[in-house]
TrEMBL record:
Gene3D superfamilies: 3.30.450.40, Histidine kinase-like ATPase, C-terminal domain. One of its GO terms (biological process) is phosphorelay signal transduction system. It catalyses: ATP + protein L-histidine = ADP + protein N-phospho-L-histidine. This is histidine kinase.
């Protein structure tokens, strides 16, 4: 029994130190991982700090010491303040009015505890056993009143909370309720028995620490998932603190054990033990080998994978396969699927155009970020495609460059503080697109596991996009086949009509008696015949890939003629009239521009002018068609504007924009579009300058002459 009695103080000491360690762990968890916007973060942090001090004082001085009792009261005050903050965060102003007096009463009652402890320590009271027992009973009643009041507040808080607030209250409420229930039962047993049960009294700090850890895990920004996955730096610091705590615990326990043995050599033995422990720590802690071993061991045995790959794959598959019934396109679902992996709140999908420049295709929860028409140059796309590089923007902002990508990152992405990572989508060594992820709500640096998972997921998403593009190409080919079959009949009928009109014109020349009628009829018939012949030529030109008889075109003269055609319908104005001559075919270019101007008029409000802007830059001439109408979404510009048989107009056939682009391409030009919903649209037609084309042709002629002479 003597040996067991000697071990009980040591067990109590270890339990109190364990409680201090748990509260310290809770402080670290709250400080590093708790959501800063949580209303209970500050109160729980203060309560955990007070509990840590209380447990240490109880271990060193004893649980009944005045300093330990005052620390316990400070903990209770912090817990009451936490409850009040939760009431305020729920926004129930009507509930706060009756709650404030109860909170104030509990605080005042709790403040009586230190006064009673100080009174109990007075010499007059300490010598009177009856008086000391009475003060002890009053102290227990105060603790029970505080516990009962706190439990009533917690019950009312959770029962009357809004549904959106209950997930915030759940884990904090469980932790606070557990602490006050334990204290209430312990105080009740002590009041009925006249003394504090020693084993349960020693467990008070340990239980409080466990509840603090539970509350700290519930404060995580990722939700109350009890999954400890801190960063490497935080984990090793925590491990270092734990090792220091174990070392100090062993030091105290060893010194206490030597003192309990007694004898003349007790004090000398304690001094030798402490000195030996200090020397051992001084030799072991600076050792690089020991630190390396600890790091490897901790990484191997303490850390789990950041991701639950089974759950991530199931969620990834559900997001991609849910279909477009909810209104989200495949492109938007692709961004969401990747953003869910890293808990990013938003993202963008950029895909290469015909010049390999990246353009915005889809957004996910990121409407405020302004994305230029050309989001990134083809140089960035080439680097990403060559190295399959996942770009961390924080590293790029810090000047870290892995494969020359830092110089190619566009400025708007570097300036966007929410931009966190860029993931390339590679399909058979070809860049299909890139996804820009927003910074997670719980920011952290990307590590090797993020890179591996995002790279594999990006390849899978690229295959989905490539499959969709292949299916769209097959559908377009099928529709073109049907269109060509229909056009064969149309062309046959139009040929017959042209033949009839030509015959009618020939007969009218010979047999019409009225000269005036004959002249008007001839003019009308000839115009109709010419228009139908032009239509036949245009229909027969589809698929040829070029326009014959190219020549110089005065863009100013052409633009004036187009503006005059629409003058009676809608205002069309020229912003600049600098002389610019390009190489092309006037009829085909006029047809393409008329279609673009007509689209701009259809999209504009009545009376809102459409502008034609003519410029020359380098070896190219440009004419822009600008309106301030409804605009188009990036998805429609990407997937619908230049696709045949897709029209936003009721009854439209959907080949006008496609035809305009093909005509301009056939003249060695380009048609580009920039549109913003609610702001307007800008179509840009770029063709080679006539002078540059002449010089190029002259150079080719001279080369051929030199080759013939040689």
């Amino acid at each position: 029994m003597t040996g067991l009695g000697a071990l009980l103080p040591l067990a109590g000491l270890g339990i109190w130190l364990a409680g201090a360690a748990l509260n310290g762990a809770a402080i670290l968890c709250i400080f590093y991982r708790a959501d800063p916007s949580r209303p209970d973060r500050g109160g729980l942090l203060a309560a955990s700090a007070a509990s840590t001090v209380w447990c240490l004082l109880a271990a060193i001085l004893g649980a009944d010491h005045t300093a330990a009792t005052i620390a316990a009261a400070a903990r209770n005050l912090a817990l009451i303040a936490t409850i009040y903050c939760l009431f305020k965060a729920d926004g129930r102003t009507a509930t706060l009015k009756p709650v404030r007096p109860l909170i104030v009463s509990l605080v005042l009652v709790q403040l009586l505890q230190p006064a009673l402890v100080l009174a109990q320590d007075l010499p007059a009271t300490a010598n009177g056993a009856a008086g000391a027992q009475d003060i002890f009973a009053v102290r227990l009643l105060i603790d029970m009143l505080v516990a009962i009041g706190a439990l009533m507040l917690l019950h009312n808080l959770y029962a009357g909370a809004a549904s959106a607030m209950r997930p915030v209250l759940r884990w904090t409420g469980i932790a606070l309720g557990g602490i006050f229930v334990f204290d209430l039962n312990l105080d009740t047993l002590a009041y009925l028995g006249g003394a504090l049960p020693q084993p349960l009294g020693d467990l008070r700090g340990l239980f409080s620490g466990a509840m603090a850890v539970l509350a700290a895990l519930g404060l995580s920004a990722a939700g109350p998932r009890v999954q400890f996955s801190p960063s490497r730096a935080v984990a090793f610091r925590t491990l270092s603190l734990v090792l220091i705590g174990v070392y100090l615990t062993m030091l105290v326990v060893g010194a206490k054990a030597i003192a309990m043995i007694g004898g003349d050599m007790a004090h000398a033995s304690q001094a030798v033990f402490v000195i030996a422990a200090i020397v051992a720590a001084g030799l072991a802690l600076p050792s690089p080998r020991l630190r390396g071993w600890l790091r490897v061991t901790a990484t191997k045995h303490l850390f789990q994978h950041r991701y639950d790959y089974r759950e991530e794959w199931l969620r990834f598959t559900r997001t991609i396969g849910q279909g477009s019934a909810g209104g989200a396109s495949l492109e938007e679902r692709i961004v969401k699927a990747l953003a869910d992996i890293t808990e990013s709140p938003a993202g963008l999908l950029l895909m290469p155009n015909e010049q390999a420049q990246l353009e915005l295709t889809a957004r996910f929860n990121w409407p405020t970020l302004a994305v230029p028409a050309v989001a990134a140059d083809n140089a960035l796309a080439a680097v990403l495609e060559q190295h399959n590089l996942i770009l961390a923007f924080d590293e790029a902002r810090a000047g870290i460059d892995h494969a020359g990508e830092a110089a190619q990152v566009p400025g708007w992405l570097m300036e966007a503080e929410d931009a966190w990572a860029l993931v390339p989508l590679i399909h058979f060594d070809r860049l299909v697109g890139v996804i820009v992820l927003a910074r997670p709500r719980n920011p952290r640096p990307l590590d090797w596991e993020d890179f591996d998972l995002l790279r594999v997921a990006g390849q899978q998403l690229a295959s989905y996009l490539a499959e969709q593009a292949g299916q769209q190409a097959l559908m377009d080919a099928s529709r073109f086949d049907e269109f060509n079959r229909r056009m064969a009949f149309v062309m046959h009928d139009i040929k017959n009509l042209v033949s009839q009109l030509s015959l009618l014109a020939a007969n009218a020349e010979k047999h019409a008696d009225n000269p005036a009628f004959r002249a008007d009829m001839l003019v009308t018939l000839r115009n109709s015949s010419e228009k139908l012949s032009a239509l036949l030529a245009r229909l027969g030109r589809y698929g040829s890939g070029h326009v014959a008889d190219l020549g110089p075109i005065d863009l100013v003269s052409l633009a004036r003629g187009i503006a005059a055609q629409f003058a009676s319908v809608h205002p069309v104005a020229l912003t600049r009239e600098l002389p610019v001559h390009v190489m092309g075919k006037r009829e085909a270019l006029e047809q393409a521009l008329i279609h673009l101007v007509q689209n701009a008029i259809d999209a504009s409000a009545p009376g809102s002018p459409v502008f034609l802007d003519i410029t020359a830059e380098g070896l190219s001439g440009t004419i822009e068609v600008i309106d301030s109408g409804e605009g188009m979404s990036p998805e429609f510009v990407r997937t619908g504007l230049f696709k045949p048989f897709i029209s936003s107009k009721p009854g439209g056939f959907g080949i006008g924009a496609f035809e305009a682009r093909e005509l301009i391409r056939a003249m060695n030009g380009r048609l580009m579009v920039e549109s913003r919903e609610g702001l307007g649209t800008r179509f840009t037609v770029t063709l080679p300058l006539a002078a540059a084309a002449s010089l190029l042709a002259q150079g080719e002629t001279d080369n051929s002459i030199h080759q013939e002479v040689a």
